[in-house]
């Protein structure tokens, strides 16, 4: 996040993003959380800042089939999230960054059988994480 215009609202949004780096969230989640903390924030400010952060490469924006809104994930600490696959726990919502080497063989097979390429940055595997499995057993 170099040379960006810093405002109190932007700083609040970034603070929220960093605290929730391992989960997916929507613009509504951010809006609600920040306003519940007592900081007045306009919805358009949230959306505008999220779009800027996506362009700057600090956020990944994707669409999930069961969520009627765009979802976001903070990616600054993980390098370019557009270059690797993610897994998300369907129980707790935590997001895991997967090494593409694990999926290379599968991706090659999909390409040869179906003629399609996997867009790693937009691929989210839905899983149940180890912690949630242990809690539910």
Features of the shown structure:
alpha+beta; three-stranded mixed sheet
What does this structure look like?
The protein has 137 residues and is an alpha+beta fold. Helices cover 41% and strands 17% of the residues. It has a three-stranded mixed beta sheet with strand order 4-3-5, with no helix packed on it. Strands 1-2 form a two-stranded antiparallel sheet. It is globular, with a radius of gyration of 17 Å.
Write the layout of secondary structure elements.
Elements: H1 8-19, H2 27-36, H3 43-55, E1 59-63, E2 70-74, E3 85-89, E4 95-98, H4 100-114, E5 124-127, H5 130-135
Parallel strand pairs: 3-5
Antiparallel strand pairs: 1-2, 3-4
Helix pairs in contact: 2-3
Summarize the structure.
41% of the residues lie in helices and 17% in strands. The chain has a 3-stranded mixed β-sheet, with no helix packed on it. It has a two-stranded antiparallel sheet with strand order 1-2.
């Amino acid at each position: 996040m170099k040379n960006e215009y810093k405002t109190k609202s932007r700083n609040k949004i970034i603070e929220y993003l960093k605290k929730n780096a391992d989960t997916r969230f929507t613009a509504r989640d951010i809006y609600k959380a920040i306003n519940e903390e007592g900081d007045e924030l306009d919805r358009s400010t949230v959306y505008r800042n999220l779009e800027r952060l996506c362009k700057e490469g600090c956020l990944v924006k994707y669409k999930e089939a069961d969520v009627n809104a765009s979802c976001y994930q903070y990616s600054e600490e993980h390098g370019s999230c557009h270059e690797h696959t993610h897994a998300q726990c369907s129980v707790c919502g935590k997001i895991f960054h997967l090494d593409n080497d694990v999926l290379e063989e599968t991706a090659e097979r999909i390409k040869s059988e179906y003629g399609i390429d996997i867009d790693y940055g937009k691929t989210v595997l839905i899983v149940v994480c180890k912690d949630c499995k242990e809690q539910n057993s």
